[in-house]
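Extended Data, panel c. Modelled sequence:
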Amino acid sequence: MLSGWINKKRDHGNLLFIDLRDNYGITQCIIEKENSNFRELEKTQLETVIRIEGKVVNRSKETVNNEISTGEIEVGIIKFDVLGACRELPLPVFSDQEYAEDIRLKYRFLDLRRKKIHENIILRSKVISYIRSEMNNLGFLEFQTPILTSSSPEGARDFLVPSRLNPGKFYALPQAPQQFKQLIMVSGFDKYFQIAPCFRDEDARADRSPGEFYQLDLEMSFVEQEDVFNVVEELLINTFKQFSNKKILFNKFPRIKYKESMLKYGSDKPDLRNPLIINDITEIFLRDDVKFEIFKKLVKSGSKVRCIVTKKTKDRPRSFFDNIDKWAKEQGASGLAYFTFENEKKLSGKGPVGKFFSEESLREIMNITGAEVGDSIFLACSKQKELEKITSIARDKIAKDLEIIDNSVFAFCWVVDYPMFELNDLTKKIEFSHNPFSMPQGDINQINFENPLDILAYQYDIVCNGVELSSGAIRNHIPELMYKLFSIAGYTKKDVNEKFSGMINALSYGAPPHGGIAPGIDRIVMLLAEEKNIREVTMFPMNQNAQDLMMNAPSDVSEKQLKELNINLKNKK
């Protein structure tokens, strides 16, 4: 006997072929016209669940299907029973063709039957099981931290849960188990991990689900930054080798300083499969023999000039360069100026702005950027943040158009040395740039708190193929230092005691140095499955508006429930 869903039917007149699908794959079944069940099976709807009885026979050599695991056999149907009838389908299941997202999410239970996404979810399960096994082998213990906790003033928006027993007060769903995992270290457990659900009221993106996501949360005591790196590198290398045939570009992940990353890649999420590098050539526009007046005026007012060199592109058609310039304007930039280095004996710039540069200034640009005759250069000029944004996406755009991104590898790197603080452009106030519980770098007795924007932290990101998998840090375990750092960001000692009471209290009772990280499970699986959208590796995702179309959430609740929670709703307009 064999049970499953009718995936596909092919009627050959005297023979009816049924592809029967279950969790393990497809089995071809056949029934002859003379069989009394033929007519009933012929009119049975696709996706009906049936049980068949029949005889397993070998296929002839010319009919073997090597694309499925059961391709060498087929089942001759003797009789069948309908176990679960199926209505008319709102979307095709036997095909992985693109289909409207709202239909896919509303009928997610059908969508999950489709081959590709079904395999993605199985992959997700196997990856999580493998990671758990690896963490156990590395000496980590798995603990579960609370789901109902207190609201945090840092990070994204919280999801709030009203308390029935404490009227007017609210729990928050954890954005991450950050404080709890640090408390676990204070409790004397030295290696913790958890496949942790996290909840953030954020807008959806291709690499981020609205509402909830899962991360491999881990923390270690008596460690320095390199100790965390060594554990995570071993884990990720083993995991990606286990579930992908792609090459891992670096067995020892490069360490890239934050400032260097923002200059060379325009981003702290660099895709190292892309060989293009961004260079700063602002000083060139201080020369008298450069006549590019638009850029020169901007530089005098505080703007910077950065460029991207493309190798051996002198024979590219004019349309290639113009299309890049047009694309940049569509992104909200003023465009990308360009020219090509020509004629070794009397160096010149061919292109719309090449004439504005003297031979000496062109040689200086070549010296800074490593450009050669036959290479081309794209130039952008703006304030630093806008410049980083356009050069980052231009670097990706140009590389894709040139088809020079190596899609056969995983390129991991660490981004390190993040600033402890940053200046808010709108409020002009100093804020934490990353995790407020991080340890500042250097001798804590020698830190210059008068120049807080110069303070670097032991904070780090792990990045793969331009996707940030996680942020982490060595934690600040010294209460007096924490009070000092929070005061720079505008928090009084009273504020810290009230908002982080559990943490600050625990650290005053003998806390070990500790640090950790939390790589995103969803993003790891997305990379392994070679998907561009995280919903393709999530079993029951929400849509862009944080709605569960299948379960109709969020939903209205009864007046009785609101009354029990002491909540009154304003009249809806």
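The chain is about 30% helix and 25% strand. This feature is highlighted in the accompanying rendering.
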